[in-house]
Write a structure and sequence with these properties.
Blueprint lengths: L2 H28 L5 H33 L5 H19 L3
Helix pairs in contact: 1-2, 2-3
Amino acid sequence: MRPLAALIAIVFGSAVSLAMGLAMTWAVLLFLPDEAAIFAGEKAPLLQAIAIFTITSVVAGASLYGELRERSWRRIAHASMLAVLGLAVWVYWPR
C-alpha cells in the first residue's frame, strides 16, 4: 500500500469510528427519556458531530477508493477530504 493510501485509510477509519461512536451515544440517549431534560442541550451538538463525521467518512472513503483504484478523479476526492477535515478542525478547535 502506498503511503498516501495508508494515511487516507487512517483518516477513514478514525472518521468511521467517531461517527459510529457518536451515533451509538445518540441511540443511548433515546433510551433515557427520564433524563431528557438533562441532555436536552447536548442533542443539537451531538447531531452536528454525527453529521460532520459521517460526511468525513463518506468523503475519506471515496478518496481512499480513488487512490487505491487510481481513478482520474482521486485528486478532487483528496481535496474534498482536506476541505472536510478543515471544516472539522475549524468547528472543534478550542477557542
